[in-house]
Amino acid sequence: MDSFGKKLRECREAKEFSQAELARQLGVHHSIIGKYERDEVKPSIEVVKKIAQVLDTTVGYLLGETKQQNVLKDPKMLKRIADIENLPAKDKECLLLTVDNFIKATKLSLL
Q: CATH 1.10.260.40 region(s) of the chain?
């Protein structure tokens, strides 16, 4: 699994930001960005939130919780998740079982 620093650097470079530019947007000294990228210093969760916002990614991606950089930034996906969360427990369970089976069948068909 990639470290926070590696993911930070990857996202920063994808946006074509220098360390100095990212630091300027975050309101920190540019040297701290290098320390984050080398995993010498761990930022606070508030700083990680700011970094995710500036780099147009998610906290989950930067922290290694997901491999997909933008999955939770898709408004349609977020709406679906919220709708599912608001279903009665029995309906939610049935829907998730259906989705799980569909994903499993799709993966098997790709083999």
A: 4-68
Average predicted confidence (pLDDT) for the chain: 89
* CA 22 – CA 20 distance, rounded (Å): 6
Q: What is the CATH number of domain 4-68?
A: 1.10.260.40
Q: How confident is the model at residue 22 (pLDDT cuts 50, 70, 90)?
A: very high
Upper half-sphere CA count for residue 84 (Cβ side, 13 Å): 14
Instruction: Let me know if 33 is exposed, middle or buried by CB neighbors in 10 A (0-12, 13-18, 19+).
Output: buried
Q: Cβ distance 15 to 26 under 8 Å?
A: no
Cα 8 from Cα 61, distance rounded (Å): 9
Could you tell me if 64 and 2 are in contact, meaning their C-beta atoms sit under 8 angstroms apart?
Answer: yes
- Residue of 47, 39, 46 lying closest to 9 (CA atoms): 39
Q: Average pLDDT, stretch 5-15?
A: 94
pLDDT in tens, 78-106: 788 888 889 999 999 999 999 999 999 99
